[in-house]
Amino acid sequence: MIPDIYFDDISMLSCGWLRESVDFPAPQPQNDILTVPGRNSPIRYAEALGRISYQPREFTVVLSMLGTHARFIERSSDMVNRFNGRLVHVTKSEDPEVYAVGTLLIQPSYDALAGKGILTISCTDADAYLYHITETVQSVIGNASIVLDNDFMPVVPTVTTTAQTTLSWSVSGDSFTKTLSAGTWTILELELQAGSNTITVSGAGTTTFRYREGRL
Fold first, then answer.
1. Alpha helices of the chain — where are they, by DSSP H?
2. I want to staple 33 with a disulfide (CB 3.0 to 4.6 A). Which of 42, 101, 124, 175 is the partner?
3. Are 67 and 115 a contacting pair, CB within 8 Å?
4. Cα(187)–Cα(180) distance, rounded to whole angstroms?
């Protein structure tokens, strides 16, 4: 299969571009430190909030085409007009279940001797996490315990209830209870960690949890 890449669900292969290379390195942690006189070790801020924070993801995509200079100008101008400087969802054909979000910078070049046009597409401000294309949605009716599985990225789900409902859960040994009336709610304390998260639901209606998972 010919490798492809999608910008906002638009196939570059279908637009006449061949994907020559993709450089999608992992995001780097924020390794800010403070050296304090008299101390033998610095103050490290990487996990200041109890977890590792990451710098923006950077990536580069190189696309090419064969043809006349006029044809290249037409196609590259279309790409620049569509995507240059815009915040775009980017998906690789070999990893179709996740997408990156970042601002694209496009630099065209043309080799007249080879009759080959190149688009170098870079991004320096992408979100650190890659997001799942499909949101995770789970529902429970009445009184029950529900297990919400989550990928690596911590996420707060949206909770929709059709009747008054009480939720109970634990995070790192701390127990929480929240009673909700019918409606849609976001509870900041209800942050799903990587793996399985168990929530006890007490109520007569339907309770729906909706969230988008992510990973590095």
1. 69-83
2. 42
3. yes
4. 10
Name the phi and psi angles at 76, rounded to 5. Answer: -70, -35
Which pair of structure tokens corresponds to residue 15? 């637009």
Q: CB neighbours of 48 closer than 8 A, spacing ≥ 6? A: none
Cα–Cα distance measured from residue 148 to residue 210, given in angstroms and rounded to the nearest whole number: 10
How far, in Å, CA of 122 to CA of 197, rounded?
37
Task: Write the DSSP symbol of residue 72.
Answer: H
Is there a contact between 185 and 177 (Cβ–Cβ < 8 Å)?
A: no
Topology classification of domain 5-128: Elongation Factor Tu (Ef-tu); domain 3 (2.40.30)
> Would you say domain 136-215 falls under CATH 2.60.120.260?
yes
b vs e for 38-68, b when ≥16 Cβ sit within 10 Å of the residue's Cβ?
A: eeeeeeeeeeeeeeeebeebbbebbbbbeee
Q: Residues 45-65: pLDDT tens digits?
A: 776 667 788 999 999 999 999
- Spatial separation of the C-alpha atoms in residues 99 and 191, rounded to whole Å: 22
Write down the domain spans for the chain. 5-128, 136-215
Question: Which amino acid would we find at residue 136?
Answer: T
